[in-house]
Amino acid sequence: MRKAIVTLLMFLIFILVSNNAFPQCCSGNTIASMMLQSGVSGGYGVQFYNAAGFNNYISQYNQKYASTSKTEMGEFGTGLGFKFGANAVQFHVDQMLIGLKISYQQMKEKNSATRISSSGGEIKEEFNLSVNSFGIGFTSSLVLSKRFDIKFIDAMLTWNTAKLVNSYSDPYVSTEEKLESVRSYLGFAGGVGAVFYIIPKYISVEANGGYSLFSISEMQFDGGELLAESPDGGLAMKNFISSGGWFAFIQLNFSVPI
């Protein structure tokens, strides 16, 4: 229910912004000058985040195996990956563009550590983290010319989940444990961007950046057990990813009139 209410509010905000930006929307001249567009996009970028709980776990992991360690496990906080989106509808009136969009992004980061076993063999352990975000929101841009736009509002509500794979291997055995966030966590992302049109109105390259607010509190194994604060067990971890951070993407956009 909460998700449905929030989504509805986003639609209302979009309508209000559209009405304020185009108070003469019902006049014949404006209707004649309005162009509706739809489109898709895909890009690659970086997302920074603060994995306070997980990095504390890793710090204890490194301390636990310090005497036999060859390489320590690195901390997490910089995800790289792809983002795909679609403009459900975009209004082009005079020098302004206002659109309603949805997006999906998957950011990945992995770190590994090696140590020597009691028999002299090498043990390798790897953590592979994936943070996934689905978003819905709106954008507002100023058209500077046929080739350039400045996107001064790019705001989205996001629903965020995470997956973690822990891989272990030694000379005799290999195992893999999978964990997922216990639920989807609500967040927000806001940014700005610059758009260059390769083919005006149809194909463009966009560079955008901003800040994401989100967190992932708890992670659970396939069997339902929660990830603990320490490699030795204990209380359930409550701040796996404590906060989001800055992001930057470069993407290719394809638009068509509707």
Describe the structure.
The chain is of the alpha+beta class and 258 residues long. It has a single domain, classed as Porin (Beta Barrel), CATH 2.40.160. Helices cover 15% and strands 57% of the residues. The protein has 3 helices and 11 strands, in the order ααβαββββββββββ. The chain has an 8-stranded antiparallel β-barrel with strand order 1-3-4-5-6-8-9-11. A hairpin with a 4-residue loop joins β6 and β7. The longest helix has 20 residues. About 10% of the residues have low confidence.
List keywords for this structure.
Porin; alpha+beta; 11 strands; 3 helices; 258 residues
What is the SS-derived class? alpha+beta
CATH architecture: Beta Barrel
Largest beta sheet, briefly? Answer: 8 strands, antiparallel, barrel
Rg, rounded, reads 23 Å
What is the number of beta strands?
11
Helix and strand element order: HHEHEEEEEEEEEE
Strand order of the largest sheet: 1-3-4-5-6-8-9-11
CATH class: Mainly Beta
Identify the overall geometry.
elongated
Mean pLDDT equals 88
**Poorly predicted segments:** 4-9, 14-33
CATH topology: Porin
Number of continuous helical runs? 3
The amount of helix comes to: 10-25%
As for the number of domains, it is: 1
What is the straight-line distance between the termini? 32 Å
**Residues in β-strands, percent:** over 45%
